[in-house]
Design goal:
binds S-adenosylmethionine; about 20% strand; 7-stranded mixed β-sheet; Rossmann fold; alpha/beta; single chain; about 270 residues
Amino acid sequence: MTGKVETHYGGSSNLAEQIANDLRAKGLEPAELTPADFEALDEFHFRGRAATLELAAQMRLTAQSKVLDIGSGLGGVSRTLAETAGCHVTGLDLTPELCAAAAEISAWLGLAGKTDFQQGDATELPYADNSFDAAITVHVAMNIPAKHRMYAEARRVLQPGGVFAVYDILQGEGGEMIFPAPWAAEPSISHLATPQEMETLLRGAGFKLLDSIESTAESLRWLEERTASTGPPPPVPITTRLLFGDGFREMVQNQLRALRERRMLTWSFLCEA
Ligand SMILES: C[S@@+](CC[C@H](N)C(=O)[O-])C[C@H]1O[C@@H](n2cnc3c(N)ncnc32)[C@H](O)[C@@H]1O
């Protein structure tokens, strides 16, 4: 199971080099860009950086905070938190190619001292109890069947009172998801929980639920605007499409239909350890 998820997300072993070459071919020098410029590539979730900033505002972060980003991908969420709160963020991700590229992008953007990236499994975190002041996970659990283990691990590594922000894709009441989707080319690696199941899972792991917010309508609007491409082009003309090639178009069309038909939902949960 784990191998299939890594294979789905891991493409090139030289992802950072490929990104740097693509940027230079378009006249852009990686080290002259800002974290916000990379949004279309490295904030791999609905509503991109704006959604991360909304979560960050609720996480009570300070410059002293030690934060864990579970399923950090190319590191956009980690860098946005580190840049805006001045905190230190450790990103953990199952896919080694993404961890290596995330570290390289942080180095380009002068955030290597504020972020580090480590390969690992969210259901078996390689950290001691109470290691972090806050944690976040964005669009990750849809690949994880053992969600009870993932959330128990998040609770274990957090200090009591620490905030855990969860933003994920959930199962809606409109029917099964349509594949391929960006998180799964086929159903065997897709494991969507319903909003009710999420609340039970998070409480069962020992979290106090502070807030839960549905954002499906906003996600649909955001994706419709992006696909209509009437707005200004992103500052960096490289998007998450890089990871999936031409198959990404079908994935996006399936997401649009699934959001409209409420087969998939987006929700965030703010919890306290
Ligand atoms: C859609 S991406 C989201 C990445 C990032 N959170 C973001 O929002 O930009 C999902 C990520 O979850 C990671 N992932 C999936 N299963 C995981 C697991 N069991 N442990 C850690 N990471 C996992 C994948 O490797 C991938 O990088």
